[in-house]
Amino acid sequence: MSRQDVLIVLVTCPNVASARRMAKALLAKRLVACANLLPGMDSWFWWEGKIDHSREALLMLKTVAAKFDALRRSVVAQHPYQVPEVLAVVSSHGHRPYVSWVRSSVRQRPR
After folding, report:
1. For tag attachment on the chain, is the N or C end more exposed, with fewer CB atoms within 10 Å?
2. Is the pTM of this model over 0.90?
3. Are 64 and 2 within 8 A, CB to CB?
4. Rounded to an integer, what distance in angstroms lies between the CA atom of residue 48 and that of residue 93?
5. Largest CA distance in the chain
6. What is the pLDDT of residues 61-76, one digit of tens each?
């Protein structure tokens, strides 16, 4: 994987307010070019030996591979979950102008 490969990073949050705070913080640090917030997700999962469920919000973050470690550290530091979901998927194809925009957006310095 190249450091400039575009990643889609999935992060579940306990509610819309925490997802918004996280999205704004990651954007301000230029760790992501874009954050899509999908509210009202019904999650089912194994936790502490039993099946559990929760209403959550999902963040779909767009960044490049070179920013992933810093993004992951930032999410873990501010996330209320003991084990937050931070999963990166490499985009193997994309609209070239969009891919270029993602790369240039995270390359710029934070304000």
Report:
1. C
2. yes
3. no
4. 38
5. 46
6. 999 999 999 999 999 9
